[in-house]
Specification:
about 150 residues; alpha+beta
Length: about 150
């Protein structure tokens, strides 16, 4: 399966203009005040760990594996874009899992800390983890239908 996967996170109370973000940040590589910075180093480390058996070239931006396809990574401080070519569903899901865990879970944790400072307990973390699993399920289902 071939597709582009783009990930970003809006700042709190920012207007959500997905097309402007896609064009300005994902295509042109410019920054926008409406977006938060992402943990790019953490994301790349996790990608290297999960795809360590793939051939990695171009300073860690091109990944390829015989029979599994290929993907390229483009990042700015605010977005991560994967250009995927002939990839298997399980590998696309691995990319999605990495970004959801590091972008969405971080956002949920930040929100919960603001909501109940100093009171993040194991029950709250489990509920947040279940919520993230539901998000993953919905995103992967949408990709299958497209």
């Amino acid at each position: 399966m071939s597709m582009n996967l783009n990930f970003w996170r809006y700042r709190e109370n920012a207007a959500h203009d997905h097309m402007a973000v896609y064009q300005t940040v994902c295509c042109d590589g410019n920054l926008m005040e409406e977006l938060e910075n992402l943990p790019i180093d953490q994301i790349l480390k996790q990608i290297f760990a999960v795809f360590s058996d793939w051939t990695i070239q171009d300073l860690g931006r091109d990944f390829e594996k015989e029979g599994c396809g290929a993907f390229q990574i483009f990042t700015t401080p605010q977005i991560v874009r994967f250009d995927c070519y002939g990839m298997q569903e399980k590998d696309l899901n691995a990319l999605i899992d990495i970004l959801i865990d590091l972008v969405v879970l971080c956002m949920i944790h930040k929100y919960l800390q603001g909501l109940i400072p100093g009171r993040i307990n194991s029950k709250v973390k489990v509920n947040a983890a279940v919520f993230v699993m539901q998000i993953k399920f919905l995103i992967k289902g949408a990709l299958k239908r497209s």
